[in-house]
From TrEMBL:
Pfam families: FdhD-NarQ. Its main location: cytoplasm. NCBIfam families: fdhD_narQ, PRK00724.1-2. It is found in: Cytoplasm. This is Sulfur carrier protein FdhD. It comes from Mycolicibacterium bacteremicum. Keywords: Cytoplasm, Molybdenum cofactor biosynthesis, Transferase. Belongs to the FdhD family. GO terms for biological process: Mo-molybdopterin cofactor biosynthetic process. GO terms for molecular function: sulfur carrier activity; sulfurtransferase activity. One of its GO terms (cellular component) is cytoplasm. Required for formate dehydrogenase (FDH) activity. Acts as a sulfur carrier protein that transfers sulfur from IscS to the molybdenum cofactor prior to its insertion into FDH. The active site is at residue 115.
Amino acid sequence: MGRVTTRVRVQHVTADQAVARPETLAVEEPLEIRVNGTPLTVTMRTPGSDVELAQGFLLTEGLIAGRADIVCVQYCSGAGPDGLNTYNVLDVTLAGDVPTPDVDVTRNFYTTSSCGVCGKASLDAVRLSSKHGPGDDPATVAAETIAALPDKLRRRQKVFAATGGLHGAALFDTDGEPLVVREDIGRHNAVDKVIGWALESDRIPLAGTVLLVSGRASFELTQKAVMAGIPVLAAVSAPSSLAVDLASQSGLTLVAFLRGESMNVYSRPDRIV
């Protein structure tokens, strides 16, 4: 597996002086995901939990419905320079009854670390029908439990603490107990890693859980929560208008501007008690 951080020399400049010093940076590298040997997408990510990332991506794009749809996931031998193994190319083998995706029809599969929704063929292409929609999930969570989640996430963001350069995503139960935390240079990748962990653990759909993201609540992150059957999505920063629309249509509870004891609940407020 590649490195998560790297060290560089920088010139630290203040009004009084300039001092050379070492700095720790988060690593950003491309990951090519192949399905049945055919390249599907390239995403810029922080190495680590790549198998989870690939599986979470396939689930949230509607290409698989569960772990049984995957036979194996492995790094590609001979894909690197001079025929060496590379940790930047993953091949996912699907079960025989799962259709191979037609990338020419649905999406230009190039995903940047800043915006995974860039490259969608059209807005309609991302309005996928989830087999695990959260609309009927009866889960409720106390407002004070939600309010405590950002601090719990921040304490577990080890690479962010060293670099200041990574997004975080965490899955909690409705009592506020953390189930998994993942970090990545791309916010959508961090969420895919969390959902990929749940897929590996045979926990899809993710009923009775809360997904917390360290930044804003975009349409794409909302879509990923819906596709995984997560009933509550909470974000530290603002939501987008499309995120609110999708949450309302899907029966997802969307919480944003989660700061201290204050929060805004944009849809399904009945779950916040």
